[in-house]
Amino acid sequence: MTGGESVPVREITLAVDGIRLSGLLAEPPHTDPKAVVVAVHGGGMRAGYFDSRVRPGLSLLTLGAELGYTVLSLDRPGYGASAARLPAGQRLVEQAATLHGALADFARCRPVGAGCFLVAHSNGGKLALAAAAHEDVGDTLLGVDISGLGHRLAVDPEQLPGRDGTDGRGAWQRHWGPLRLYPPGAFRRGRSLVAPVPEREAQEGPLWPERYPGIAARVRVPVRFTFAEHEQWWRHDEESVADLAGHLRGALRVEVARQPHAGHNISLGWAARTYHLRALAFLEECLLARDTAVQGGPARRAGGFFPPELDRDTEHGALMVNSR
């Protein structure tokens, strides 16, 4: 358990197919959650990326729990407890299957409210989109909020984390941006979160621009992208952003936002609370759209993330309206 906030954050381990995934968990006090926010870290980081304690209010976990959500931040396959079993990590499609299984395990013993909402950073955003593109995701995925990920690289592919075998000054600047964007203690805290990028993840890194269109075309839930003002890994000019959103032609809703006063590692900087509030506001809008959708049509079986025995008696056949 970590301290310094009104809501406790504790360590948790989930199991799927013999793989143990470690993570952090914060739950709303005295009430069942409205939904589960699943936080998915980026390459070379850990679950604690979303639990900054260098200043009060920066942690997504405590903020979400205070607002009535369970927040589960998981170490992706190849990180944390699963690193010994998966020293080379998993390929993206395998990570998506593992995530689905882990969340089903989580839902068997804890209330999940309306379902899951994915908040993902950088390489974790690839996993979030791959999970959202799963054919059996059902009604249990409410939406996806991604920061630090585009589809057109702003660097040479061999400069991606895990590719060049170094942590050179240039890579450091691309991860963090100007020092003034982070409170004192953020870099010391950041060093404790750093982990090697698993080999399979590093190998797949340069392939994302060509894989993104196929994955994006299968996503049906609302998606929100956030680009930091000082993002340096991905192109986020107007034409690139328009093309990024254009591939999500089946998504119920697509938004692209800019986060001022932030570098790539938004959730470790001064802007963390602002970004987290906006991500949770997007979740609130997803819930609102579901609750106010036109009634009619049969309730669908809850698939993908949660097991069949957790079917919900849904009154709304159309969970969201297309607001694009």
TrEMBL record:
<protein>
    <recommendedName>
        <fullName>Serine aminopeptidase S33 domain-containing protein</fullName>
    </recommendedName>
</protein>
<dbReference type="InterPro" id="IPR022742">
    <property type="entry name" value="Hydrolase_4"/>
</dbReference>
<dbReference type="Pfam" id="PF12146">
    <property type="entry name" value="Hydrolase_4"/>
</dbReference>
<dbReference type="InterPro" id="IPR029058">
    <property type="entry name" value="AB_hydrolase_fold"/>
</dbReference>
<feature type="domain" description="Serine aminopeptidase S33">
    <location>
        <begin position="32"/>
        <end position="134"/>
    </location>
</feature>
